[in-house]
Amino acid sequence: MRHRSLAAVLSTLFMGLGQLYNRQYLKGLLLAAVEALAIFTFLPSLGKAIWGVYTLGEKTQGFEKVGRVTVRVEGDHSIYLLISGLITLFLFAIFLIIYIMNIRDAYRTGAAREAGAKPASFKQTFAYVTDKKFPHLMLALPAAGVLFLTIMPIVFMIMLAFTNYASPNHIPPKSLVDWVGFGTFANLLTLKTWSGTFVGVFTWTIVWAVVATVTTYFGGILVALLIESKGVRFKKLWRTIFILPYAIPQLISLLAMRNLFNGQFGPINQYLGYFGLGKLPWLTDPLWAKATVILVNMWIGIPVTMVLILGILTAIPKDMYEAADVDGATGFQKFRIITMPFILFSTAPILITQFAGNINNFNVIFLLTNGDPVNGSYQYAGSTDLLVTWLYKLTLNNSQFNMASAIGIIIFLIVASFSIWNYRRTRSFKEEDMIQ
Amino acid sequence: MKTRSTIFLVLKYLLLIAIAVIAIYPALWILLSSFRPGTSLYSETLIPETFTIAHYKELFNNPSFQYGRWYLNTLKIATLTMVFSTILITLSMYALSRFRFRGRQNILTTMLVLGMFPGFMSMIAIFIFLLQLNLLDTHAALILVYSAGSVLGGFVVKGFYDTIPRSLDEAARIDGATHLQVFLKIMLPLSKPMLTYVALTTFTGAWVDFIFARLVLRTKENWTLAVGMWDLVNSFQNSNFTLFAAGAVLIAVPITLLFFFLQRFLVQGMMSGASKG
Q1: Is residue A195 located within the same domain as residue A159?
Q2: Which of A84, A90, A138, A297 is most worth mutating to test chain B (most B CB atoms within 10 A of its CB)?
Q3: Where is pLDDT greater, at A177 or B80?
Q4: Selection from A264, A257, A260 nearest residue A281 by Cα
Q5: Using CB atoms and an 8 Å cut-off, which of residues 74-103 of chain A contact chain B?
Q6: Which ranges carry the ABC transmembrane type-1 domain (chain B) (predicted)?
Q7: Residue partners of B249: CB distance under 8 A and separation at least 6
Q8: Domain membership flag for residue B13
């Protein structure tokens, strides 16, 4: 009884003391060093962090009279306060976990000593950790990276959606930012200028995602079947040629396409001219621009599906076709009853993933049309803008950070609901151990 | 009957040729344009009457571009990102696939959820974070962010490790191998196709990213190819198309060649990710 409570109390007072008491010197010193590091770095600013996140700063930048001269006084920078506050809170959470583990460890070792066991030497502890805690060890570094470079920024952006951080009135350091609750979402859905743009861009995003997914999917299937069909020779050559659009970096191919479809000097319109046809406003007319992005997306996306389908086609058991031949099935019947169900069954999850990917397909829109042609009735958006590209413009060009975050959250909700539905349906996520 | 199937076959070939032309044409057009004299987008013929390498020379000699320097920057960033991401992804996905520990399911769910947020929603936060760490305008910042971000896209790798029979490492464990030995001596050699896939995708990802690179890299000497290219397109619009074409060829050729050399691995990687979702 004595050992365990004494060790636990000592470790609560200062990390590592309990371990030192348990004669685990190296471990105790290491833990003490962790606490010392925390005290010297972020622990003192914990109070300020909580204050900063809660209030987002109280002092506006302004001028103050000092004696006879007026000097400019720096105000609080709400956004810096929010981020550094978040970082401190995240660090504190990690520290708290280590702290609790440290107390538990001291308590357990103390209990073991009471039972007459010798406390584990550092070598034994090390062996224990590398054996039983191996996965945790492997995950520690990636987890730290994800925590600070993905989770922290996402939490930050989610919080921004509930502030009024937007130009022109609430941009630090000139002025402060405040919490406004669901005000941003309310504006997005009710203010005429915002809601009009939102509904328009949202509708186009869904239409685009459906059409882009369906065209590339069935296009890919058709091309794959064409290559694999009876009598076609040089299958490998065709495959290699058709993969080319997939092999070229999108940055390059899309910028090239932008020139290719150029209304005035682009070669496509030039060729149309040879056939006696007029020039088409590929990228400048709202409706044509939408058609163009879908066409170009087919050029990029069909090879991907084609490669997948070609792989699946080779996996269809040959005896199924032989059995069908014996029964006297025609080519079309074989396709309808064997090939197509097989393809659909094995690619259904990918179809949903591609749909979700297309909702967030930034590259095609941004590089090809940049969201243009401009739509006069839209707020900071063009006719081909998707929610993501609109978000990008709002953030980087127009400083409407709160609105951008709200849109980001909405995109997340859309994608998440499709993905959850998908995972439930395929169940491969849940029953992953079934294969082995 | 015979003639009907012949007609069908001819139609099939015509269709294949048409698709092949569509697939090749844009690349061929850019390649040929990069050798065309003059600067204009418009050209009477696809194949230029005379060939010139003046545009390639200009890329490296014109003081307003530092193409050679950008090339080295990009090569450095992409290679280091590739190395770090491959290590991080392999380690973490191996752990998630092979071990059953408390919190594992939560980690998997968190990864899925994080993957559903639009990537650059976090840009502003990362930007300020880097500003406070004094890492803005450094290549280290890019490498750090790319590598840390790549872990979330590792489901394909996890799916791959899921398919390797567990009896393999259990046997080695019984023979007294440590976890590290099992990983290094048995799993790594088996994961060659997967490693190649991850290395290739992370390398290309860093090679062509211009969104984040443009945000972080402020001075022209530090730019990457993609940022320089983006700037070229935006500042010249279409007035110097042939120069753009030459730059595009130099960016695309290494990636395209890599892709064709490693195609086999890429398809394997895609398939193993596909069957597991």
Answers
A1: no
A2: A138
A3: B80
A4: A264
A5: 79-80, 83-84, 87
A6: 71-262
A7: B30, B31, B34
A8: no
